[in-house]
Design a protein that fits this description.
By secondary structure, the protein is α/β, with parallel strands linked by helices. Helices cover 28% and strands 34% of the residues. Helix 3 links the parallel strand 1 and strand 2. Bound molecules: S-adenosylmethionine.
Length: 249
């Protein structure tokens, strides 16, 4: 999952499908500063190949990324020169510092495997936020907004290459299973690869409960953003310890 073949074309595909990384980052930055005025440091969790992070770097004085896939992290380093990209797991990391803001974009939070893991991971994020810092979560679909059996297809022609992406998604227990087929063709030849994803469908209420349990007393859900998935914006309590039992200083 999220291997080297995909790292090479991931941003091209999603930009080709109309995703506006710059506009999304600018909107998130504005919502963060409405809650944490003067926010200047930001950590983008599950930063992928660094597409949002590149935009955040123009909007914040200090940015860092965290990403579990090594090939994706390497691409992010190239995309955002000067930013530290940590290879790590969002469920358990300690960067030894706090940020004014944390973001996790494009449904990446759905890779958590249970409600318990969701709350525990939000606590890990809290440990990395200054008191009063803000977390923005672009969630995966909710059970009630998810379309079982959804098929999507795109053909992108860019940089002398033709890229086809066809996905099929269906319910598997309380998760969505998404199989994505890619064909990348250019003068040197054509190759096909497949990526399989299991992405959890937490309900809106489950997210809100997890934020409260993890030490974010003030969370808002904004409908309609991010292709319809929406956005949670949550502010960390001002208690220096509390829900996280310590953390980076
Ligand atoms: C849909 S991509 C989004 C990437 C990027 N945020 C963007 O908007 O382009 C999901 C990302 O989550 C990362 N990811 C999945 N599980 C993770 C984990 N446990 N810790 C950190 N990153 C993870 C994947 O490697 C992948 O880069």
């Amino acid at each position: 999952m999220y291997g080297a073949d995909l790292a090479e074309v991931f941003e091209l595909i999603h930009q080709g499908r109309g995703k506006d990384y710059l506009a999304e980052a600018a909107d998130v930055a504005e919502r963060i500063r409405a809650r944490t005025p003067g926010a200047d440091s930001l950590l983008d969790v599950a930063c992928g190949t660094g597409s949002h992070l590149r935009a955040f770097a123009t909007l914040f004085g200090h940015v860092e990324g965290l990403e579990i896939s090594e090939p994706f992290a390497r691409r992010a380093e190239k995309a955002v020169p000067g930013a530290t990209i940590h290879v790590g797991d969002m469920r358990d990391f300690d960067l030894g510092r706090r940020f004014d803001a944390i973001t996790i974009m494009f449904g990446s939070i759905g890779y958590l495997r249970s409600a318990e893991e969701l709350t525990a991971t939000l606590r890990v994020f809290r440990r990395h936020l200054v008191p009063g810092g803000t977390l923005a979560v672009d969630p995966w679909w909710f059970p009630e907004t998810y379309l079982d059996g959804y098929v999507s297809g795109s053909l992108i022609e860019v940089d002398g290459r033709t890229i086809a992406r066809v996905s099929h998604s269906c319910l598997e227990g309380d998760a969505s299973r998404m199989d994505v087929h890619y064909v990348v063709a250019g003068p040197e030849g054509a190759r096909h690869f497949v990526e399989n994803h299991l992405i959890r469908l937490f309900s809106r209420e489950r997210y809100l409960a997890a934020f409260a349990e993890a030490g974010y007393p003030d969370t808002t859900y904004i409908e309609g953003l991010n292709s319809g998935r929406g956005l949670f914006v949550a502010t960390r309590d001002r208690d220096p310890g509390g829900a996280d039992e310590g953390g980076p200083s």
